[in-house]
Write a structure and sequence with these properties.
With about 160 residues, this protein is α+β, with helices and mostly antiparallel strands. It is built from four helices and eight strands. GO terms for molecular function: monooxygenase activity.
Length: about 160
Amino acid sequence: MKAYLTNGTIDFLIKFAKKYPAIHFHFMNGPSNDIAYYEGTDQQIFQAGREYDVIVQSGDIMETGYVVLNNIPVIDEGRPLFEDNFKKRQKEVDSQPGFQAFRLLKPMSGNTYIVFTQWDSAQSYERWKNSEAFKKAHAETKPPAYFADRPFVTTYSMIERD
């Protein structure tokens, strides 16, 4: 399955939903920008967007919630090990209170993977981040040799469509 993401103002992004009514878009608002996200089709409609293969997925993306995008640059040689590590531990977050959806997104160009998680609230994410389960899931994730650069996190709130 493919996933697509682009940035812009919400006024600009909402035009995609009107122009492509058959595509189910998810709109999110962050501290510095808004994004549109959709998945499940091979139709790339964003001229300046990013395309990903969905490597691991669980849960359904909801219209409301809090989204955390962990952006992780990975060197080419490290991609198989990185993906395998997520496949081995993908279910650890699913049972956490407030969890809604997970996607491991592999970039079609560039080297920055996105670990997409959606929660019912920022508080649920913070509880997960401070839990023993989180520590266990990330025990082996000291900055590995396969990181091409320093990972960074961006957060968003879902924008409900009328």
